[in-house]
Amino acid sequence: EAGEEKVAAAYPAKRLGEPEDIAALAAFLLSDEASWITGELVVADGGVTLGGGA
Fold first, then answer.
1. Would you list the DSSP string of the chain?
2. Cβ–Cβ < 8 Å for 53, 47
3. Where exactly are the structural domains of the chain?
4. Contact present, 46 and 15 (Cβ < 8 Å)
5. N or C: less crowded end of the chain, CB within 10 Å?
6. Which CATH fold topology does 2-50 show?
7. What is the pLDDT along the chain (54 residues), one digit of tens a residue?
8. Where does the secretion signal sit in this chain (predicted)?
9. How many C-beta atoms surround the C-beta of residue 31 within 10 A?
10. Which residues, 6+ apart, have CB-to-CB distance to 11 below 8 Å?
């Protein structure tokens, strides 16, 4: 568990992702609220691609 905490601390979000994080994104993309979003790449990585992460 200490190893997971160390890795999580390196992520800009300061936590590891959970299956629920991806499920929430998928639910949004399937919802009417996302009907105007087309052909988009959505990165769900806790901010790692912003730099300074794990």
1. -HHHHHHHHHSTTSS---HHHHHHHHHHHTSGGGTT--S-----STTGGGTT--
2. yes
3. 2-50
4. yes
5. N
6. Helicase, Ruva Protein; domain 3 (1.10.8)
7. 789 999 899 888 899 999 999 999 999 999 999 999 999 999 999 888 887 555
8. none
9. 9
10. 46, 47, 48, 53, 54
